[in-house]
Amino acid sequence: MRIVRLANFIAPRSGGLRTALNELGAGYEAAGHEAVLVIPGPEAGRRDTPSGQIITVPGPVVPGSGGYRVITARRSLRRLLDDLAPDRLEVSDRTTLRWTGRWARSRGVRSLMVSHESLDGLLRLFAPRFLPAFPGSGDARAERIVRGLADRLNRRTAADFDMVVCTTEWAAAEFRRLNVPNLMRVPLGVDLARFSPARHDPEFRRRFAAPGEPLLVHCSRLSPEKRPDRPIEALRELRRRGVPAVLVVAGDGPRRAALEARAHGLPVRFLGHVSDRDLLARLLATADVAIAPGPIETFGLAALEALASGTPVVVSRASALPEVIGESGVAVGDDPGEYADAVRLLLAGEERHRRDRARRQAERFDWPGSADGFLRAHGLANLIGGRR
């Protein structure tokens, strides 16, 4: 079967979505299917990869996004889809690409929408200041407006596609409240071989922290919805309390300059985007605690990679991450003091115990099992045999 996948908001340095697309494509290929991924880029191109063929179509950069591009030319994309003649269509963008579900239905092609973000959460996060619709605002009318808009758009998405896939129950909640019948939950996975406690490297650690200094890490795109300021403020609070922690930030994005200014005077090291996955694995395995504060994360691959590396994670209670980390980390509110409390709590535990617990939680997820789940959502046979 030819599975054509469409995705927007892909940048050369994007992380979680690109990882998921690559790993699932490799899983489809391993199962005997043909995977084709269509993404936006600066110019047209085609290349073969272990994850299948990748087709780049010209797409403009979204202003202020730090390099994210989108496919906007419907006519040429429609022609490309007709030429590719997919047996299955998989879409990873609920905004500008939602119309492709209707295209698939008109051609008799089974379609699947992957919900990589909480629309309800995005609307709340980016609501205009005159509409203070965010958790705890107390504005009941604003809450109704935002929820009503999210419900209308989600209802249309479910109607346009044969199947909607969410990676966590948290992400599925906004569809479940609509009693959507074509909903399926399939968790993502982690590379358990690459991200491993065995990557812990004392020599590598000395590059970032002196003896006795707890090493914290934040691995994320530096954009507003990820709340990358929270690890910095947590570090500030920890040092105010006498904890000599240091922070390494792995990632890039539109907020980097502002964050560097905010971190002035604090022991924070900005690495930028880390394209070397083995280097990232060493960093995660060497850190004492990872911080993943994004309040609208629907899965959190970076947090799962930290767990697989044996490093516990402090996460936002408002996100899906408490569901992913289980008891191998701590979920907190939005206050930097809560993050500092959680870091101290984790550091107070016996190191070997907390690392073993983190690894065991990550071992519940793998990419073969995730690919199996997506193939089931496509109505295709399971040929890989991963964990479920």
TrEMBL record:
Query: Glycosyltransferase subfamily 4-like N-terminal domain spans which residues?
Result: 15-187
Transmembrane ranges, per UniProt, are none
**Which keywords has UniProt assigned to this entry?**
Glycosyltransferase, Transferase
One annotated GO biological process: carbohydrate derivative biosynthetic process
Gene3D superfamilies in the cross-refs: Glycogen Phosphorylase B (3.40.50.2000)
What taxonomic classification does the UniProt entry list for its organism?
Bacteria, Bacillati, Actinomycetota, Actinomycetes, Streptosporangiales
State whether keyword Glycosyltransferase applies: yes
Q: Does the keyword Glycosyltransferase apply?
A: yes
Q: Pfam families, alphabetically?
A: Glyco_trans_1_4, Glyco_trans_4_4
The molecular function GO annotations come to:
glycosyltransferase activity
Q: What is this protein called?
A: GDP-mannose-dependent alpha-(1-6)-phosphatidylinositol dimannoside mannosyltransferase
